[in-house]
Amino acid sequence: HAADAMRTDLMTITRYVLNEQSRFPEARGDLTILLNNIVLGCKFVCSSVSKAGLAKLIGLAGETNVQGEEQKKLDVLSNDVFVNALVSSGRTNVLVSEEIEDAIFVEKAKRGRYCVVFDPLDGSSNIDCGVSIGTIFGIYMLKDGIEGTVEDVLQPGTAMLAAGYCMYGSSCTLVLSTGAGVNGFTLDPSLGEFILTHPDIKIPKKGKIYSVNEGNAMNWDAPTTKYVQNAKFPKDGASPKSLRYIGSMVADVHRTLLYGGIFMYPGDKKSPKGKLRVLYEVFPMSFLMEQAGGQAFTGKERALELVPTHIHDRSPIFLGSYDDVEEIKALYAEAA
Ligand code: P6P
């Protein structure tokens, strides 16, 4: 009966967010409008990415079209669509995009209360081989009526009020948390609507998968090296873990969220801060993991408690099943 209800009583993402909004009597619907504009951006990117393969034939994004005009690369195009969708929502104040060196300060006439940090097309280097890629975003709220500054987005992840990602793969899946658990929505192209398909996602307490780029093993520190060694040659007679590494954060995190296990991008001798960016990769994914019952660790502290000093700061990250992250935390505690 429940399955039938899900089929006929369509829980669209818009309806879900409106329901969420009703939890806050003082809400004015601003977050609903903001999220609707983010959803619009995701629908556009989903449509463009699915055509990317054809781009080479008909000269869409990233190629020169029949008129020989240089088309914008898909990640630049996606960035422009998100910036326009966010600014035109009239609900944003400061924007930080992976694609843009400096923060964007929305003009007074269109200013709202929210700061959005986002990577419009993370993993875009994987487009040409058809690997899933995604959009990642996080949302902070400012006090009413103030003019945002960079300091307003250099906040710890604990100050985020919502976060999510949209994965462009075999289907287009948007995973969102507004602070009361995690829900997954799948785009029904025939309706042009994201429909609730993964209600109240909880990550398994422990998993059998570890996800890391083993190509960096030469530069790893002792705790990471030991953790991976234990995963491959377990001392307690348990069976070894499986290694799954797609090299596209949204895809690796989505699998970790649904199947359990740990995703790691450690710091190492070459890059002590690792590779992934704090504001629009580490924080949103850590927020989702905690909301789904998992956890996220930087090698030194709870990832969400990090305070960034620059909008494109990087941080090492270990996130996923609660027990698996506990193991790596113990190894770092030993080494401290
Ligand atoms: P590496 C993609 O370029 C990305 O930013 C993330 O999506 C992904 O997790 C990571 O880099 C992969 O990095 O060094 O393993 O290729």
Automatic annotation (TrEMBL):
Start and end residues of each Fructose-1-6-bisphosphatase class I N-terminal domain: 11-199
Highest taxon of source: Eukaryota
GO CC term (a single one): cytosol
TM segment ranges: none
Database matches in Pfam families: FBPase, FBPase_C
E.C. code: 3.1.3.11
Every Fructose-1-6-bisphosphatase class 1 C-terminal domain range: 203-332
Catalytic activity: beta-D-fructose 1,6-bisphosphate + H2O = beta-D-fructose 6-phosphate + phosphate
Compartment(s) of residence: Cytoplasm
Keyword Cytoplasm part of the UniProt annotation: yes
GO molecular function (one): metal ion binding
Keyword annotations: Carbohydrate metabolism, Cytoplasm, Hydrolase, Magnesium, Metal-binding
Cofactor entry: Mg(2+)
UniProt record, GO biological process: fructose 1,6-bisphosphate metabolic process; fructose 6-phosphate metabolic process; fructose metabolic process; gluconeogenesis; sucrose biosynthetic process
Family named by the database record: Belongs to the FBPase class 1 family.
PANTHER family: FRUCTOSE-1,6-BISPHOSPHATASE, CYTOSOLIC, FRUCTOSE-1,6-BISPHOSPHATASE-RELATED
Protein name stated in the entry: Fructose-1,6-bisphosphatase, cytosolic
Taxonomic source organism: Ceratodon purpureus (Fire moss)
Lineage summary: Eukaryota, Viridiplantae, Streptophyta, Embryophyta, Bryophyta
